[in-house]
Design a protein that fits this description.
- By secondary structure, the chain is an all-alpha fold.
- The chain folds into three domains: 148 residues, no CATH class; 209 residues, no CATH class; 54 residues, no CATH class.
- It starts with a helix and ends with a helix.
- The relative contact order is 0.12.
């Protein structure tokens, strides 16, 4: 009897919760439609009226489709008894869920996290531009690392010229001659190269300061309050200006000029004619100038290689800021907004849990009913309805037999050994077996 009570209670709960089930489905479908409207509105272009009505129509269609889809499943899937039909409906539910995610859930996510996703896109772009500015600034300052080498070479040539003029440290004869003239010339060339490199410092500093101010403005737009669309437009304008600053810094690098100047030291070396008063002094001057030439070539090679290493550094990639809509940003940065995606999908697919609950409850009802005997499945109400139906049938037969002529009195019907009379079946009193049979038949007509 406990199985009958359980099945009866479960059936009663299902009937009592039918209104609540419809309310839940309608509420979820309405919520999905609202967020779908907010998401699709950010994708449409045109006049405000056209965008409004287009978004409304799409969101209403989504709400109706979601409500109808889950209503059909919650009605039919729990009633499926064979495994094939149940698996077929489960496959249809999986396909429908994918379609719902495609037409609604990603728009719900765009409405829930669209602004945050666009801000994430701005922040990522800002980081990229910051790295580009630092790289361009480093490349532009690379030539400044050659200044110590240039300064040492200039000082060495100047010192040798002074020593030669004062004490004749190189030729053995003091005084201003061809060697002093050559050393002074090389020192002057190094000073010119040093001045060129130093002049680029101010240009690089100015460009980097301009880039920093652009980055500060972009950083303020990322975290500033207000509509994300307007901030995105201002961010794009700042990004274009910053790209120009980065390109200017790339062209400001003095490394190519240093490399060419270093090559000129060797290829453009012009030694003066020895001006010694004697052949011996002139020979010594030629030897010293040859040594100076070798030193200049070595210095030129060292500077050229250092400048080549600076030029070999990776160039700043060409970068262009691409604005994204809220829906596009949510898709690109989906991994950063998993909670928002989970909420958006749950709104659309939560009815699947209700379908599962109904399937489990119907299965428990069927298992309980299968364990009962036929007589145990009859309720008191079924018994009363069966008796009323039997009485109605007896009364109908009496009305049909009433107009006939009265028959002669007959002897009382004989009683059979089993206790039954010999009266016609329609005049017998209903036995318990007949009532049970009628009750079962009545139940089959009443149940769907």
């Amino acid at each position: 009897m406990s199985h009958a009570v359980q099945a009866s209670r479960l059936k009663g709960h299902i009937v009592s919760l039918e209104t609540m089930t419809r309310f839940v489905l309608a509420t979820l479908a309405l919520a999905s439609g609202v967020y779908t409207y907010l998401g699709v509105r950010s994708l449409l272009d045109g006049s405000a009226t056209v965008v409004f009505f287009a978004a409304i129509i799409y969101s209403v269609a989504v709400s109706v489709a979601i409500y109808g889809f889950w209503t059909y499943l919650i009605r039919f899937l729990p009633e499926m008894r064979d495994a094939g039909s149940r698996l077929a409906l489960l496959g249809i539910m999986a396909l429908g869920s994918l379609m719902i995610v495609a037409m609604s859930s990603w728009l719900n996510a765009a409405a829930l996290a669209g602004s945050a996703a666009v801000e994430q896109h701005l922040a990522v772009t800002l980081e990229d531009y910051t790295a580009d500015l630092d790289q361009a600034h480093g490349n532009a300052l690379g030539a400044l690392s050659l200044l110590p080498d240039i300064q040492r070479a200039s000082e060495r040539f100047a010192r040798l010229a002074a020593d030669e003029q004062a004490t004749g440290a190189l030729t053995g004869t003091s005084g201003s001659g061809s060697v002093v003239q050559l050393l002074t010339q090389m020192s002057a060339q190094m000073d010119e190269l040093e001045a060129t490199v130093e002049a680029s410092r101010d240009t690089v500093k100015t460009g980097f300061a301009d880039g920093q101010s652009r980055l500060a403005a972009m950083r303020a737009l990322v975290s500033a309050p207000g509509a994300i669309a307007q901030r995105s437009d201002q961010f794009a304008a700042e990004a274009v200006a910053l790209a120009g600053v980065i390109a200017a810094l790339e062209q400001t690098s003095i490394a190519p000029s240093v490399m060419r100047a270093a090559a000129d030291l060797s290829f453009g070396f012009i030694a003066p004619v020895a001006d010694g008063g004697t052949v011996d002094l002139a020979g010594r001057q030629d030897q010293v100038m040859a040594t100076i030439r070798t030193s200049v070539e070595a210095q030129s090679k060292a500077l050229s290689e250092a400048a080549g290493e600076i030029l070999a550094q990776p160039k700043v990639p060409d970068r262009r800021y691409v604005p994204l809509t809220a829906a596009e940003a949510v898709l690109r940065y989906a991994s950063d907004f998993i909670p928002s995606w989970a909420g958006a999908i749950s709104i659309d697919l939560l009815p699947a849990v209700l379908v599962g609950i109904m399937a489990v409850v119907h299965g428990a009802m069927r298992r309980g009913e299968e364990l009962l005997e036929g007589a145990d499945r009859i309720t008191a109400g079924d018994m009363l309805r069966s008796l009323e139906l039997h009485e109605a049938l007896l009364a109908k037969r009496q009305q049909v037999a009433a107009p006939a002529a009265p028959a002669p009195a007959a002897e009382p019907p004989a009683v059979s050994p089993g206790g039954d009379t010999d009266a016609p079946p329609d005049e017998r009193q209903p036995s318990a077996q007949n009532v049970t049979t009628l009750a079962l038949g009545d139940r089959k007509r009443i149940e769907p």
